Amino acid sequence: MEKKELRVKYKKMRSDLDEEDIDDLSMDIANGLLKLPIWEQSFYHVFLSIQKQKEINTEFILHILQGKDKNIVVSKSDFEKNTLEHILLTDNTVLKVNSYGIPEPIDGIPIPETKIDVVFVPLLAFDKKGNRVGYGKGFYDKFLSKCNPETTKIGLSFYTAEEDIREILATDIKLDYCVTPMNVYSFND
To answer: Which residues bind substrate (predicted)?
Structure first.
């Protein structure tokens, strides 16, 4: 399927989920993450969920990371440049929901992309090769292209993999893993 079709399909599927479904599926995804060999790292980038888009509730992942005493990094969006600034999440970090519904830090300690070890990547759909479809603005592809090649990229999805996503661009960054409520996909084999 083409990216545009996948965006429509998965936005519709998500719109049918209620809050309880989202929390249950998100908890299953967070538990699936515990099976991955990623927990010896230091800096973990987590997206903060856009509730109106019915995204995965990443609070469960935040609790795991806090329990393991990890450095948590969140983003602030620049919609003029379609880029992200990365901020260390601390007890003092003040978050504000922007006009797109994204909770973001107002300010804080900036963290360079090269320091981030693991990135939990939002997506609408992914395929069996590790390609992903996001909202189409390229924020995450730009961000991931600046990370170290060793940075682990983990997609989070309520749904299983598509067979194949068409229209893959040279600038599209593949995932290393994708975790769904039922499966952990690895693309490094």
So the answer is: 50, 55
